[in-house]
Hints:
148 residues, mainly beta, 0% helix, Methylamine Dehydrogenase, Chain H, four-stranded antiparallel beta sheet
Amino acid sequence: MVLSGGDDRLWKTWGFPDGSILLTGEGHTDWLSGCCFRPSGTQLVTSSGDSTVRIWDLSRRGCILTLRGHARAVRGCSWHSCGDFVASASMDGTSKIWDVNSERCRYTLRGHEESVNSIEFLPFSSTVLTSSADKTLSLWDVRTVSRL
C-alpha cells in the first residue's frame, strides 16, 4: 500500500503494484503537505495548509482527532516509532510534539528563524530532526526540549 496527499485536500491509499485507489479521506480545508502511517499500520497522520494535524483511523475511514495549535500552515508530520507521539513542523517557525493518547501538545520546539519544513523522529529514540527555510538542520531531544 502507498499513501499520498496533495493540493486536492485528500489523502489516498493506493494498492501496489496495480495502482488502484483503496481508501480516500477528506476533511482538511487546504492542501496536504504530509502523510504518514502509524507504525502499527492502523492509523495515519496528515498535515495541512489549514494549520492542523489530523489523525485518521483506517478501519473507521475517518478523522478521529484534529490537533490545533500552529499559527500557520503545517509543512510536515511524522510518527514516533512507539506510535504514541506525532511530530509536526510549521511555517510559523515552530515544531510540536503531540501526545496522541492525551490529545494535546506535549512540547513546542522553538529556535528556527524561518519556516520549519520537515520533521522526523530518529528510530527508537527521543530525538527529532528538523529542517528549516533558514538553511539549518537541528537535532532536538524532546525530553528536554533542547537542541543537541
